[in-house]
Amino acid sequence: MSPTPLILGIDGGGTKTIAWLAPLDDDTNIVVLGRGLAGPGNPRSAGFEIAQQNIAAATAAAFADAHLLQIPVAAACFGLAGAGREIEQQRIAAWALQKGIAKTVRVTGDAEPILAAAAPDNCGIALICGTGSLAWGRNSAGQIARAGGWGYLMGDEGSAYAIARAGLTAAARAADGRGPATEILAHLQRELGAKTPEALIDRIYAPEVTRDRLASLAKLVFDVSGSDSVANEIVAVAASDLARMVATLCERLSLQCAGYTLALTGSVVLNQEALREQLLQRLITNGFGPSTTCLVAEPVRGAIALARGLCYRTTRPTPN
Q: What is the helix (H) or strand (E) element at residue 141, kind and residue range?
């Protein structure tokens, strides 16, 4: 048994659920006793039953990794994609309490833990840019706002999916002669094993080609953006779209005057330095530059911080 009360942080997304077990008395938010991993934890895309099974499995794995018998922890925070509304949060929290996972439970969307991992006061803006995109912000008065996050049919501007789709459109236009020549076309053919541009149709529309697989093609656009004007423009548009999301929240929450923390996470914005630099430059040029920028590779650390706050009450409760 652990000599100190325990807390639990959960980061649940569309492909995996990460659980961290930590001691309550670590104010540095650094110590992790055990880590667990399971399948998707997004209750909307995976379904509530599957998400709950994976949350439970990741939690059990974290206790096993810590060589501890599983007991109800003092507090737990679940940061879950697909749980941004009260209806999802209440359902997951009720289940976790009923299962005895924790004595106190808080469920949030996946953006708030990102900000909590970067800003001790949980104020600023979190920008997610991976397969999809979303900006979420909170000011010192406790007001919150979001921009983006409408999904691939209605939004996700600046995301891997949006960049990949723009690359596919540019390649098709180049093949027809309706648009400028671009290296993206040859790279797509090579990546997908298409001997001719027309063969891309069978590859792209194959039943097994998922949205995530399409989004992965964004890397081809980045690969040639340094030498290809079409690819470079696609990246520039993505950076502009992301900057607009952040600037919108700055205006709505009055963050630009006092300075704010910008927390960045997601495979695209973390791994593509050129996009990140363009994003920050646009914010600075337009008067919305952050005072601090943090790259958050492990959002689950923010869930741990929020769980600790449930016990210590060192910060004001934040609205969901």
A: none
